[in-house]
């Protein structure tokens, strides 16, 4: 268990980074490649190609990583204790989903200090769907003492393609879990580095100013005309890459094409936050991103890593 | 006698599906057994979050021998036919067939096929895999590299068969690589080890030892009783919630009921907000003070664990989550109160009502116009009604309703009261959604009634305009409920006004799929159908209503109140002796007219000539009809259907006498025609009230 001789700066009960490092170590021991965050803005860890693309095709894959998530509409200028426009997800993807995935997940909770003999852990029905990714799956919200701490999904379809074999996806809401472990009421109060006194760095020290600045930018400043153009550019570039990369036999540029799809999706989120996308247009933008995701998924299935 | 124990052990099954699935499984298996000639004494299904269990007792060791006869062709049938029959029946030659005689058809072949009984274990091993593979889940999934579709990953199958006191045998089969056996598992955390089971009795017992209560009802009653005891000890009462109880009992295998608290300051929130936050989002029960009946700052949670610290951590954790939820709610409430409802309206521009019906803003505009028009019809204050309609959807863009959508309407009311709206206007913000179901009351206040009617009529007109009508069991926008709401609001409040002009005008707001006239006719027909169903429940048969509707539908500008008044009176008439006789006379007249009009190829509708009457009875009937016709018309003009019917029923005597003593088809053509014209007058007079031909005998 985590208390055994773990220094404070690595202890998930005392430091936010300790929580991340413990999860990384746990999943590394399960054979996952531990990746670093993808270097693009995205709304959820699922958009990372290590999940979206790698969940397609027959080849086995195990990965775990932290992914910063950008949800411009959730920004509250740092004033809401539980809501941020930028936060972290810890994402695990195991393909094919192993038989003991639930047990592994529970062991990972134990590793971060959630003892199943003390806490009420529950798997509560959840149907997951991502209209922009053309993806859906079945699984649960995982509850700890009445709080949702993770999402657990067996992917059935991604980018419009059946998943075979099926991947198991785990998403940990890190800030929320950390608040519980550290017993604080607001994310901003979290101890980030596990030190005390002058050496202590809080979540607010790291992110409060960023929350304020990005809320201002997302809601008030973002240049919508430029963003509309960015969307069009990303969409066009994605199409162009898809066409250029197809040599008739294999696809040579599925990943660069997919990056443009990620870009289009984030630009759409920014436009949404600026309130400049009308309701009727909204649906059509989601559809346009989904079409890109589907085309990229199709291309990926025709590459070395995605193919049979 | 032997019994079957089948357990399908899986990852957590959604709470709402467990019991139905277990019952389905039982039925699928027993149906197939019976079909194969295997009868049983009793079958029971059980479900927990992780298992579906079927126990079938009193099974035979083997199915009975079954003898089936298969009829063949006549003995003198062509060779080809006989050969075909032999092949199909699996016989080698006609010697193996029997010959039967039929007095009409002569001699023919019959193949008697005897099927030996099969071992029940073989039958089960044969049918169970297919039953599992093809199980009809509403939404199922695959996992790993497997091919099986199940609600969530299936992890173990226990299937045993045997007598009491004997070691049972395993019914051996495989589903997508998973082998059946006799091993199950206890509680996920308290007793995760494998358990070897034999028969149902020791299985249920072993589960209980391993912290699993198999019986759903028992889990439910345990929770109910424990909750009541915890509440009683604090002089509190649990707010009953059967739906929540069902759900919670489906989320645990070993229910542990505990009580938690929250800060009293949250009791300043509207009660419904606290209850919704705790109940819908945390699946915990709320409580009331036993003395005052006020909401208490306690809640009851049900956990799945007998924790090592007695549950302190679990209660603490739940209190924390509820505190966060209520803090959110309080934050939403306080910030919502700072923004007047009216200034939120522009945000409705960004909220879609329906793809083809525009935004909520557009809908609000329509509601204002339509409810104002309705207000004028029912003498409600147009100022209040338009104010209420304008604000009716404003709470949809408050933080509170965004977070707790089930509080729509109610929050509108609270916020409207807080900003000093008139009481009836504030109430209408909540009550315009009424009636939400058949057991819900209708708004009585005219302001709320006008907006409620506009709300529902706008939905109906809109969805009819774009041709999104309910079909069969599909009614995604709850339009049947909307139509029933319209009917109940009008009838229960006696709001006597016509829809035809109103909705024809309202229809202009939409892009029509089809012709306006046809859309309206279809919509009115739909409302009339709902009215028919509604009236039937009140003892007015459908034929009475269709008699009334014949010439007087909503499309003709007749109000619902008017239609029902006619139907009630007509119903009284047809149920009376007087009426029965009158209806019989009407039928006779109508039948004669139909036959003669057909024969003569013309319609009788001319005035009667009194000089051509040969009998007193004719004269009397003619005079009565003239008097009654005028009186009925006058009564109808003032919507006095009771008197109209009374007048009409006075025709009974003259009609009876006429048919008793007068032969319509007189030899003198002029007399005959005159009599037919007289019958036509009778028919037309009666049609002033309703089309009596629609009445069923």
From TrEMBL, chain A:
- In this record, what's one Pfam family? tRNA-synt_2e
What Enzyme Commission number(s) does the record list for this chain? 6.1.1.14
Record flagged with keyword Signal: no
Q: Which GO terms describe its cellular component?
A: cytosol
> Which Gene Ontology molecular function entries are recorded, alphabetically?
ATP binding; glycine-tRNA ligase activity
Statement: the UniProt record of this protein carries the keyword Protein biosynthesis: yes
Q: What is this protein called?
A: Glycine--tRNA ligase alpha subunit
Source species: Maritalea mobilis
Q: What is the lineage of its organism?
A: Bacteria, Pseudomonadati, Pseudomonadota, Alphaproteobacteria, Hyphomicrobiales
From TrEMBL, chain B:
Q: What is its main location?
A: cytoplasm
Subunit organization: Tetramer of two alpha and two beta subunits.
Q: Which residues form the DALR anticodon binding domain?
A: 585-687
SUPFAM superfamilies for the chain = HD-domain/PDEase-like
Cell compartments where the protein resides: Cytoplasm
One GO term (biological process): arginyl-tRNA aminoacylation
From the UniProt record, report the name of the gene that encodes this protein.
glyS
* A molecular-function term among this protein's GO annotations: ATP binding
Q: Which family does it belong to?
A: Belongs to the class-II aminoacyl-tRNA synthetase family.
Q: What is its EC number?
A: 6.1.1.14
Q: Extract the HAMAP family matched here.
A: Gly_tRNA_synth_beta (MF_00255)
Keyword Phosphoprotein attributed: no
Provide GO CC annotations from the record: cytosol
- Name of protein: Glycine--tRNA ligase beta subunit
What broad class of enzyme is this? ligase
Q: Which reaction does it catalyse?
A: tRNA(Gly) + glycine + ATP = glycyl-tRNA(Gly) + AMP + diphosphate
InterPro entries (UniProt xref): DALR_anticod-bd, Gly-tRNA-synth_bsu, Gly-tRNA-synth_heterodimer
Species classification? Bacteria, Pseudomonadati, Pseudomonadota, Alphaproteobacteria, Hyphomicrobiales
Q: Which UniProt keywords apply?
A: Aminoacyl-tRNA synthetase, ATP-binding, Cytoplasm, Ligase, Nucleotide-binding, Protein biosynthesis
**Keyword match Ligase:** yes
